Amino acid sequence: MLTQADLALYRAKDEGRNRYCFHAEELDREVREHFTLTNELRAALDNHELELYYQPQVERTSGRIVGLEALVRWNHPRRGLLLPDLFIPLAEQTGTICPLGHWVLDQACRQFKAWRDQGIAPSRLAINVSAAELCICTGFEEDLAEDLKRWSIGPGEIELELTESVLMETTQIHGDALARVPRLGASIAIDDFGTGYSSLAYLSAYPVDRLKLAQRFILGIPENASAIAITRVMLSLARELGINVVAEDVQTKVQLDFLVSAGCLVGQGFYFSKAVLAERATEFLRRGLVETAAL
To answer: Dihedral (C-alpha) 235, 239, 245, 250: value to the nearest 10 degrees?
Structure first.
């Protein structure tokens, strides 16, 4: 009875507090599912079930690939291909994010060096970093410096993407670590820019190299007048600060044409290409561009 009451309490908290929930068999199933998936995730690295996909970042005026974003996927033996939204939160809760994040960084750096050895490497490769990696993973800076040195990564070739919420959460405790990241040889990008509640002062206080406009605004173009206005303001702010911008989740030519007219020349999304395995990304890089009917 106490266990069931505890599960109902946690459900009430998850749904926003100031409410009550009754216990149901569904909660028991969720607990068993959580426990099973946690154990399977811990074994996924040893079983080589994780894989990196790469999504191109494309310059509109030329169709040239100017960067790639590395995105982790889990080839689950029973569930098939799982996207990060389904297992990264679990990894953060259980501490598995530390070995998982280190694996992603090492594999991405290794792949970047392989492309550079072939003479086809993009100007930069972006890697997502969660707040948990910076807050609970001891030795994050040391691991970053070691991987950059091991794979002979040049300054700015690896870019760490942090959301606004991650930036706000980590700068309160680990602001000095973020300030040291560029000195280690990596650059910093703010992902989902415009959706968080961080102070704009962070843009001047920390060495931010790029902003990635949040997909909710891009998807609202051209129907949503507010999305258009907010996007223009963010692009204007970035120009004033001398910060480069990438538009995420571009899906149509109309969206892309608006972004170009507003001054954003680099896009990423299904309009150009979905995230692909390294072999397919290598084909893109050999051509030097992504071929779409509109480019």
So the answer is: 30
Grouping H, G, I as helix, E, B as strand and the rest as coil, residue 255 is helix
- Do 276 and 270 form a contact (C-beta atoms < 8 A)? no
DSSP state of 206: S
Which amino acid is residue 43, in one-letter code?
A
Q: What DSSP assignment string belongs to 113-158?
A: HHHHHTT---S-EEEE--HHHHHH-TTHHHHHHHHHHHTTPPTTSE
Alpha-carbon distance values, 166 to 13, 14, 197 (Å)? 22, 20, 11
72 close to 55: Cβ distance less than 8 angstroms: no
Handedness of CA 153, 285, 159, 129 (dihedral sign): negative
For the entire predicted model, the pTM comes to 0.85
- Say whether pLDDT at 180 is over 90: no
* Contact assessment for residue 101 and residue 137, using Cβ atoms and an 8 Å cutoff: yes
Cα separations in angstroms, 28 against 5, 25, 208: 11, 5, 44
Domain boundaries, the chain: 1-44, 52-287
Residue 19 has pLDDT above 70, yes or no: yes
Q: Which fold has domain 52-287?
A: TIM Barrel (3.20.20)
Nearest 5°: the CA angle 219, 105, 71 is 25
pLDDT value, residue 18 = 80
